[in-house]
Amino acid sequence: MRGFALTNWVVAAVAAVLLAGCAKQTPAPEAAPARPEQAASQPEKAETGPSSLPAVGGSGSLDREALDDRYGPPTDAALVAFAGDRVYFAFDSAELTPEARATLEKQAEWLKHHAQVRVIIEGHADERGTREYNLALGERRANAVKNYLVALGIAPERIETISYGKERPAVLGTGEAVWRLNRRAVTKLITPGV
Hints:
Blueprint: H1 2-24, H2 36-41, E1 52-54, E2 61-63, H3 64-68, H4 76-82, E3 86-88, H5 98-113, E4 119-124, H6 131-151, E5 159-165, H7 176-182, E6 184-189
Parallel strand pairs: 4-5
Antiparallel strand pairs: 1-2, 3-6, 4-6
């Protein structure tokens, strides 16, 4: 009987030790998320690289966007650099030549990129003919350019026209070399407030 009691006591002791060991193996608590005030106090990573790049061979700097934008800013100079600002006409004609159409297609592309820009088309003529006739011819030339730009998708309300006839020659003098440069239509940006 004593042996039986001793065995029961040993079994009970082993069971107690095992239970005690299991009770201590509780799972480790998960790491608590950072509190917002801790996250806010962490310094942000510094941006790499400057926000603008120095101009090559000059002073000052250019924006990254300006370097990536092949159309340039919405200025007359950028329009001239991208597409050219004028087209030329044959004597006593308001018909667009293939070269003029190519220039206007580039202008339309530029205007689509700068959707906020409005332009005025100036129609000009050479010195031959009466003042009234040349004003009418300059108007037909300006309208031919406007109509082509509208056909290319530019909204007509973005385009105004004016004729100067022979009053504002690009080149002074006489002879075909001079006259052909004065038979033109010029696209200019309308500056707000002017």
